[in-house]
Each structure stands twice: as structure tokens, then as C-alpha cells.
Design a protein that fits this description.
mainly alpha
Length: 389
């Protein structure tokens, strides 16, 4: 017989299991960061860009439909994984928000939702029907736009008040939260014709132009910092070199946006403005696409240099996909509005590059998942060394 009687609190303590440490709950999800949404973006753009090509390729639309289904499945999978990450590893999730190298990737959530919603309207409707595709796009577009606008404010706010960023360390990933509203501007035209004529259509059209301006001006603020960092500090670390392709995102997406908006403007706004927006699409898109090709050449040269110096696969390789896909849709829009065959072949060439990059990144990602390498704790980046030629 016990000397002291057990109290109710003692019995409850004996019966209740000890709390499981955060690191031991769903350990495979601990390092699933917001950068995983890039896999969804890169897959969805393959489908959207494929059907946007101004040429007919037998079997391409069917292949794009399959890729759209993969993108939708990937979105659902990553959403579940990220939810589990926040539930089981809230300390790590908060750490991501306070890490200036990771926090900008929260813009990828918005773009993943938008990309799948937009591809549902252009190719997914072949499978699920126009009504279901429209409903899905409305939900994903609304959620993606609100999240994107929130990230465009919240992440720069954290950069100012919480992050400690050293001078000369600007990164192309800084563009991710501010480019998300540009994706909304480019995909909003898919919904403009679905709204009642009059105020509703005009409101969405002008809202898209407002988001276009928001993202463009923010990009113009950040891009000089990124180029200055390259000039003064030298090439990026090998693992981050693929992020140079992220600069193509706002360039190609803005060109896509002005061309898509010009297509729907006649049914949403008065004739003088509608025709002017059509002119603006060409006057803006042609020089910006020229700069995009210049940056593409520079980025390719630096990636080749990094590969020769031992660059290995990382999730940053998904930066080769979505930004290039936006240039495909931008070139396709210019081909549609100018009638130049040169833009048609440019769109085709960029799409071939996109598919090749997506296939390589996808295969290497699956290999890393099966081996567990991509689920392990990230290694500390190697120190920046002196420039080499």
C-alpha cells in the first residue's frame, strides 16, 4: 500500500504521454520550405505556355493536359505538406519567415495558386469542363491574388524591420514576392470576359493594370540592387546561380500581361482606351522582351561558368522553368499582335528550353525525394571566394 495517496494530478501525469519534441513530429516535413511551390509553378507554366504557342503541334495539347493534371496534383501535395510543416514544425516555419534568404519564397505560394488556376482555364477545361474550370480558377485566382498582395507588403516589411541584411547582398529571390501581383495581372484577363459587361469588366481590367504597375515599379527598384551586387561582389555562390533566371519573371510576365489585357480591353473599356492599350502592348512588350533576351544571355553565361566550377543540383534549379515560361507567353503575345514570324520562332525556341529545363529539374527532384536528400537539413552555403575568370 502506498504511503501517500495518489492525487488526481499525479494520476493524470502518469497516464498522459510526454509531449513529442517538434523535431520528431513528421520529421520528413521539417525542411519543406515555401520554395517547394516552385515545382508547381514550373509544371503549370509548361501546360499554359504550350497551348499559347502560335503554332500547331500534333499531340501538344494532349501532352499539356497531362502536365496540367500533374501541376494540380503537385499543388495539392505541396499544400498538404506545407500545412503539416506549419502544424508540426512551427518553430522552423517562423524561422523561415525571419530568414532573409527564405522569406521571399512565400511569394511562390501565390504564384502556384495562380498558375494552376490559369492553366485550368486554358487547358484543364478540356478535362473538367468550362464551368468547373471557371469555378476552380475563381477560387485560386482570388486566393492567389490576396496572398500575393499580402506578400508584396509583408516580406519587404520584414526585410526592413526584422531581417538583418548586409550591404551588397541583394539577391534575385527578392523579386519573388513583388512579382506575384504581376502574375495576377497576366491571368486576370482570363476572367474579364466571364464578368457582366460594364463596370465589373472594367474594374477587373483596371485592377490588373494597377497590379501590373505595382509589380513593375517594385521590380525597377530592386533590379538595380541585384545588378550592382553582381558587379561589386562578383558572381553569386554556385548554388544560387540559377536564381539569376528569376529576373526573367517580371520581364516576361509583364509582356504577357500587357498583351493579354489588350486582347480583352475592347469588351471591357471604351474604344479610345482599348485601341491605346493595344498600342501600348507592342510599345512596351518589344523593348522589354529585348532586355529579357539580354538578361537571358547573361544568366546562361553565368550558369555555364557555375556548372564548370562544380554547381550541383538544388531546388534553385526550378528557377530555370517558370521565368522562361513567362517569356514564352510574352513572345507568343507579341507574335499575335505584331504578326512577326520572328516572335513565333522565339516562342518555340524558348518553349523547347522550358521543357528541357522542366524535365531535368523534375527528374532530379524525384531522385532527391526518393533518396531523402531533399528532405534533409540544408547545408550551410559555402563562403564566397574571390572571383575567378
Amino acid at each position: 500500500m502506498a504511503i501517500f495517496p495518489q492525487t488526481q494530478q499525479t494520476r493524470r501525469a502518469q497516464q498522459s504521454p510526454l509531449p513529442i519534441p517538434a523535431a520528431e513530429r513528421l520529421p520528413s516535413l521539417r525542411y519543406i520550405g515555401p520554395n517547394w511551390y516552385a515545382t508547381v509553378m514550373g509544371t503549370a507554366i509548361v501546360a499554359s505556355a504550350g497551348v499559347a504557342l502560335p503554332v500547331h503541334v500534333p499531340g501538344l495539347r494532349t501532352a499539356c493536359t497531362v502536365v496540367w493534371a500533374l501541376a494540380a496534383l503537385a499543388l495539392a501535395t505541396v499544400l498538404v505538406a506545407r500545412t503539416g510543416h506549419w502544424i508540426a514544425h512551427r518553430d522552423q516555419a517562423r524561422g523561415h519567415l525571419l530568414d532573409p534568404a527564405v522569406a521571399p519564397f512565400y511569394g511562390c505560394l501565390s504564384m502556384a495558386l495562380l498558375a494552376v488556376g490559369g492553366s485550368s482555364m486554358v487547358v484543364g477545361k478540356d478535362v473538367i469542363g468550362h464551368g468547373a474550370a471557371l469555378a476552380l480558377d475563381v477560387v485560386l485566382y482570388t486566393a492567389g491574388t490576396l496572398i500575393g498582395l499580402g506578400a508584396a507588403v509583408a516580406i519587404p516589411y520584414l526585410m526592413v524591420v526584422r531581417h538583418r541584411i548586409e550591404p551588397g547582398t541583394a539577391s534575385p529571390v527578392w523579386l519573388l514576392p513583388v512579382v506575384a501581383p504581376m502574375v495576377s495581372a497576366a491571368l486576370g484577363p482570363l476572367l474579364v470576359p466571364e464578368l457582366p459587361a460594364g463596370q465589373w469588366r472594367e474594374a477587373l481590367l483596371l485592377a490588373c493594370y494597377a497590379m501590373f504597375g505595382l509589380s513593375l515599379l517594385a521590380t525597377l527598384v530592386m533590379l538595380p540592387l541585384i545588378f550592382a551586387r553582381l558587379v561589386h561582389q562578383g558572381p553569386l555562390p554556385l548554388a544560387l546561380t540559377p536564381t539569376l533566371f528569376l529576373v526573367l519573371g517580371p520581364l516576361g510576365q509583364s509582356t504577357t500581361a500587357v498583351n493579354q489585357l489588350a486582347d480583352v480591353a475592347p469588351g471591357a473599356i471604351g474604344a479610345p482606351y482599348a485601341s491605346g492599350l493595344g498600342v501600348f502592348a507592342v510599345l512596351y512588350g518589344v523593348p522589354v522582351m529585348g532586355f529579357a533576351l539580354l538578361w537571358l544571355a547573361l544568366a546562361v553565361a553565368l550558369v555555364v561558368r557555375a556548372a564548370r566550377n562544380g554547381m550541383t543540383f538544388g531546388m534553385t534549379w526550378w528557377g530555370f522553368t517558370f521565368p522562361v515560361g513567362t517569356c514564352v507567353t510574352g513572345a507568343a503575345g507579341l507574335a499575335r499582335h505584331t504578326g512577326l514570324t520572328a516572335y513565333t520562332w522565339l516562342a518555340v525556341a524558348l518553349y523547347v528550353l522550358l521543357v528541357a529545363a522542366w524535365a531535368v529539374a523534375g527528374a532530379r527532384t524525384l531522385r532527391g525525394l526518393f533518396s531523402g536528400a531533399l528532405l534533409a537539413a540544408p547545408q550551410a552555403p559555402a563562403p564566397v571566394t574571390a572571383r575567378t575568370t
